[in-house]
Each structure stands twice: as C-alpha cells, then as structure tokens.
User: Which sequence fits this backbone?
DNA sequence: CTCAGGCGAGAGCGGTGCTCTCGTTGCCGA
DNA sequence: TCGGCAACGAGAGCACCGCTCTCGCCTGAG
C-alpha cells in the first residue's frame, strides 16, 4: 500500500506490481461483464472469482469489499461516459455551438444505451448506505463542464435569442454565483440556470428511456431525444450553426 | 385465489379473508419501514417476518416472492405520490394554471423528500431483470396527466407567450400524435413535447437532488427547485396567474 | 541466501431467498 | 351437523451470498 509500488508517473515498477495491476483490471472486467448481464444488485464476488478461476477470498487481496469493487466500477463508468462525450464534442467546429451541444448529448445517450447497467450505476438510485467518495466528483463533472462551456460562449451571442427567464430568488442566486465563481466567472446567473436545466433534461430524458418510463409512449427514442435536445438548445440560446 | 373471497365492491367477506387482507397490509407496512431505513437492496423477507413474529416461509402465503412484495410496494408508492400531487393540485383555483403546475411540482418533490427510498423505487434504476407489470402503468400516469391537462389549457391562451419550438421530425410527430389522440385530442404536438420536457425536468431535478448529483452545488434545494419549475412553466406558456 | 510479506486455497460464520413437508385450524357445502 | 378441503404457520433444509481467518507456498527485496 505504500506508494513505492508505483512510479510517480503511474506505471507499475516491479513485476509483482505489474501482475497486481493486471489482475485488478481483469477483476474489474469480469465484474463489468457480470454487471452487464445481471445488473448491479446481482453482482456477486464469488461469481467474479469463479469466472477468473480463483476462490472468493482471493478477490479480497485486491478489493477490500464488494462495495469497493462497485465504487471502482462507478469511477470507470464516469470516466468512460465523460470520455465519450468529450471526444464527440471535440470533433465539432468550435464555432458550431449547437453542434457541440448536440454532439455531447447524443454521445452521452449513445454510451448509455450501450452500457445501460453502468449508466444505472452512476445515474440511478445510489446503493443504500452509500455516499460517493471524493474520487467520483471529478470525473462526474466532465459532462456538466462541457455544457457550461457551450452556455458560456452562447452568452456572448446577441441576447435577444434567449427567452426571458423568471426572476431568480436570492438564495438561488447565491448558489449560482458561487458555482459560476468557481468555474466560469463571466457567466451570468440566468444562463447558468439554463445550463443546469439542460443537464437535468439530458440525464432525465435518458433515464426515462432506459428505466422504461417512456415504454409504449415513445417508440423512436433517438429521434425524440434529438428533438428534445434541440428544444433545450433553443432555451440555451445556441444558434442554428 | 378465486374471486369468491372478495365481494364485487372489494371488501373482504369472510373472517379469514379479512385477516388475510390485514396481514398483507401489515407485511407491506413492515417492509416499507425496513425500506425506509435500509434501502430496497437490503429488504429482507426474513427480517420482515421477524418483525411480525412469523417465520420466513409464512410470508410466502401472502407474497409469492420477494420481488412480488417489492412490486406491491412500487404500486403503493405510485399511488401515494400520485395522490399527493392530485390533492395539492386540486386546492388551487382552476384558472390559476401556473399555480396548478407549481402545486403539482412542489407536492411531488415534497413527497419524494419525505420518502426517498420509495421514490428511488419508482424513479431510480429498475431491478435487474424486472419489467414493470401492467398494474403499475395506470397509477404511474397520474402525474403526467396533471401536467398534460395544464399544458392543454395553456394552449388555449394567446400563443405569443410560448417560445417558438424547433421543427418536429416525422417519427417524433407520429409518437406525439398517437399519444395526444389517446388522451388529449385537442393538444398540438409542440405543446405535448413541452409537457414531456416539463415532466422530465420535474423528475430529473428531484432525482439529481435525492441521488446526490447536486451535492455541494445547490444548497437551498427547495428554492432552486421552485425557480427551475417556474422557468419550465414559462416554457409551457403558463401565465403568471 | 534469507526471510518478510504478498498471495491463493480452504474452511467456516451468519445471513439470504426459496422449497418442501408437516400438523393444525377455520370454513364451506352437502 | 358434520366431513373434507384448503389455507395456514412452523420447521428443516438447500444453495448461495459477503466476509474472516488461518494455513502453506513462493517471490522478490535486502
């Protein structure tokens, strides 16, 4: 556990540490596979161990508990969806604000549809007594950051395109000012409120789809999703290109 | 199991049936209590049985499996939140469209904050292989119905108040037309799309709050929630009174 | 070369959902 | 009125779970 196993750049140094890192990856991969087929609630340490030809107690050399394994999977999932969004957004011309937002939104939905159980892990109900460790908040912030960046640039466009917002009460304004002070000092409160709405709408709509709340209501999920995201873009004041 | 146990009005007839109904209620109450403290994943049939001074196998006389017990709790939760929303909405003057929407939204959030585990049961990740039985779709529709009713009446107001919506692609329009044909024939597609957004925003924001995604970001949850719901109302075209 | 320590195997603890087999008992129809 | 049936609760038991502990092996660092 002492840091001597890892060089400061993160690459395992000794042979033992290399094998340990590889086995850790294999355990996570097997757990992820089991997650995809049976869901998080049914994730069994013993089954993961069987898959790897080990005995269950050996897993505890690598993860101190089942919950710690789940936490590792959660962090990986945040990283994966954040990476998918970032890469998709990066391929769009910087000046195309609408395209950047749509690219982000569609990439997140695409990842979620492909990895529904991992999506449920991070955006579904948290496990009972579980509280997210600090390690998760950084990767979790990547998608909101993309949205806020687009909202920030949209704020420099002529304001007439954005609908009038309701007046912001003082306590809400305080929260929003603290948030914008930390990440986007030039962003006005109304626009930050719209960014929060956009993120809520993005995740809320994907959750509705994956958790079955639109079953027999919406059939062409992808088309409906893109339509709704375009409406959200209009609220954000993102131009047509 | 034959219908003879119940009169057509639903009241148990024989003493045995009355005891059975009462015990069924007690089991659900004990399960709900355990749910509130330990979460759905930790709901244990044996613990419920212990609470009631029974042995675990006796529970199976009333619920064929743990999942069936959970399903019963899910239906009860849908009923409870739908009832809370309906009652709150009913106290507002019919002509006050904004008040009716805000009353609905605040009532749903209030119920969710008071019963977070039951909320997670119905709006969080569904259990792995679980698919909602038909019994759940009717109570689940009560909140969307309230929103659609308000959206429908708002559509009769001068349209200038509502922002221009993006053009609706054909497949999306088909879904929306089928939906409105079933429940609100006079409702135009743009407005129905806004109602979907309003419902998504409502549930999405409550989920963000309860599942911890706004931790350290928003502090006055209630004020922020009401502000965002007012913005959603503006999108729906609901007047200020 | 030595030996501390990382490692996997195995047994075991208390818990779980669920099944089956018992007596018992309440109730319905003949 | 009464016989039989079905509902009921208790209990034992099965397979599985997370987790702990102890035991030898064997590697790699000093």
Assistant:
């Amino acid at each position: 556990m002492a840091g001597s196993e890892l060089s400061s750049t993160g690459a395992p140094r000794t042979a033992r540490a290399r094998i340990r890192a590889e086995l850790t990856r294999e355990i996570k991969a097997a757990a992820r596979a089991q997650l995809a087929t049976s869901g998080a609630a049914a994730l069994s340490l013993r089954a993961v161990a069987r898959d790897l030809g080990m005995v269950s107690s050996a897993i505890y050399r690598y993860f101190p508990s089942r919950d710690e394994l789940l936490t590792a999977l959660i962090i990986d999932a945040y990283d994966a969806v954040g990476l998918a969004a970032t890469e998709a957004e990066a391929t769009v011309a910087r000046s195309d604000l609408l395209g950047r937002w749509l690219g982000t939104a569609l990439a997140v939905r695409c990842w979620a549809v492909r990895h529904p159980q991992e999506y449920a892990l991070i955006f579904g109900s948290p496990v009972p007594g579980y509280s997210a460790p600090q390690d998760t908040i950084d990767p979790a912030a990547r998608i909101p950051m993309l949205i806020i960046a687009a909202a920030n640039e949209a704020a420099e466009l002529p304001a007439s395109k954005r609908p009038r917002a309701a007046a912001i009460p003082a306590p809400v304004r305080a929260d929003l000012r603290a948030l914008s002070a930390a990440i986007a000092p030039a962003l006005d409160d109304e626009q930050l409120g719209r960014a929060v709405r956009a993120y809520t709408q993005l995740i809320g709509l994907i959750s509705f789809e994956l958790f079955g709340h639109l079953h027999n209501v919406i059939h062409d999920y992808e088309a409906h999703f893109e339509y709704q995201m375009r409406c959200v873009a209009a609220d954000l004041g993102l131009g047509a290109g």
Chain A touches chain B through 60 residues (CB under 8 Å). The CA atoms of residues 88 and 94 of chain A lie 12 Å apart. Residues 14-16, 44-47, 56-57, 60, 65-66 of chain A lie near DNA strand D (CB under 10 Å from a C1').
